[in-house]
Amino acid sequence: xxxxxxxxxxxxxxxxxxxxxxxxxxxxxxxxxxxxxxxxxxxxxxxxxxxxxxxxxxxxxxxxxxxxxxxxxxxxxxxxxxxxxxxxxxxxxxxxxxxxxxxxxxxxxxxxxxxxxxxxxxxxxxxxxxxxxxxxxxxxxxxxxxxxxxxxxxxxxxxxxxxxxxxxxxxxxxxxxxxxxxxxxxxxxxxxxxxxxxxxxxxxxxxxxxxxxxxxxxxxxxxxxxxxxxxxxxxxxxxxxxxxxxxxxxxxxxxxxxxxxxxxxxxxxxxxxxxxxxxxxxxxxxxxxxxxxxxxxxxxxxxxxxxxxxxxxxxxxxxxxxxxxxxxxxxxxxxxxxxxxxxxxxxxxxxxxxxxxxxxxxxxxxxxxxxxxxxxxxxxxxxxxxxxxxxxxxxxxxxxxxxxxxxxxxxxxxxxxxxxxxxxxxxxxxxxxxxxxxxxxxxxxxxxxxxxxxxxxxxxxxxxxxxxxxxxxxxxxxxxxxxxxxxxxxxxxxxxxxxxx
Length: 501
What we know:
By secondary structure, this protein is of the alpha/beta class. The chain has helices at about 50-70, 110-120, 120-130, 140-150, 150-155, 165-175, 185, 200-210, 230-235, 245-250, 310-320, 330-335, 375-395, 415-425, 435-450, 455-460, 475-490; strands at about 5-10, 15-20, 30-35, 45-50, 75-80, 85-90, 100, 160-165, 180-185, 195, 200, 215-220, 240-245, 260-265, 270-275, 285-295, 295-305, 345, 365, 405-410, 430, 465-470. It has a 7-stranded mixed β-sheet, with helices on both faces. Strand 10 and strand 11 (about 200) form a beta hairpin. Helix 11 (about 310-320) runs antiparallel to helix 13 (about 375-395), helix 12 packs across helix 13 (about 375-395) and helix 13 (about 375-395) packs across helix 14 (about 415-425). The longest helix has 25 residues, at about 375-395.
């Protein structure tokens, strides 16, 4: 290893696969990404081709390795972060997936989850897993694959099949099928893992009829996950860290103390607060999850999940053709001056926290002859901030009152969005110098395992603020905007009754 090695981070997201090389100080010196196709077989269904996930991941990883060689630098370790809850089942002998990856946004199992709720199982499920009975999580997706792919259940019970979230699938492929494992953060999002006992839960497996033979080994977030097959990248790299994307982002934001909070704005939006060694239970349908597990010690987090954030901007671009690129939204929103009563609720795949309405669908309200592209774009950006406000209100009702927020993700490059977020939340919003904190968190975990970093102190010293946004919207204006949002939310819920208004 050279005196100044790099860390390779693979960030396999919902719409693209990215590879980044990080210096010890947390700054990136190389980044490349490739988008891949989204498949929507039916309303509310979302799938990915596992082979396309693999091919794009392998391609960007090879580009990063080639870049390190061109710089004359070695790679000390490799970290993986991934879209969570997305479910893959593959054949242990061939490595081929038996069905498309069912994406975290997919709602096809809403009826099954509703039936289990009606049977009274949700309190026990939440007690064990910290989660809710919702199609968002992996367990019901896995059960669907076993029930709908011919012969899958019999093959699973014989031990011929393997289940994994995307990290496990990539780990299997990267190690040439030698390692079937995951980390505690990803396991905690499956609906199958007891977050208090740190093991797969037999009661949950029985409830969802999941054979235990499918499951990966659960390891710490920073540990030896094996080595890459030399034929893949042209050299052997140790995989030293894995974490689900939102936990990785919190780690990359150095949210190591209880009470520290971050919000990531990517395809979806996810607010995560460190709760230390206490698995705090929300009374307002926020999720209790594992923030990270190091040296066998678990740090917990409280999380609010929004299904559509950046995906709404992608819809403006690809679905409606209103914009040519996401970068255009900042100037368009600014030019609008005011939302003019236009609200977009992007419940394209249902509503996440704190509403948890799988049957809700999106709506665009308040249109007039004066409504144009500027107002629709502005309403789209505003919706991201309003959804974050709903999460913060749920946290407030749970007794949590954040005074500042660390933000990251691709959307936060938009200054208008950041300022409106501060205005709506009425708190200070801090944007770090390195906004790709999801990839950075995976790099930090790999770096801890490889000895690049000695402790959290090294990582905390890396965090640098690039910009801070302070609220300056008059209270009356803020209240009026939020009132319009709440009215729009009511109208798209599955139990909405116009006569009640």
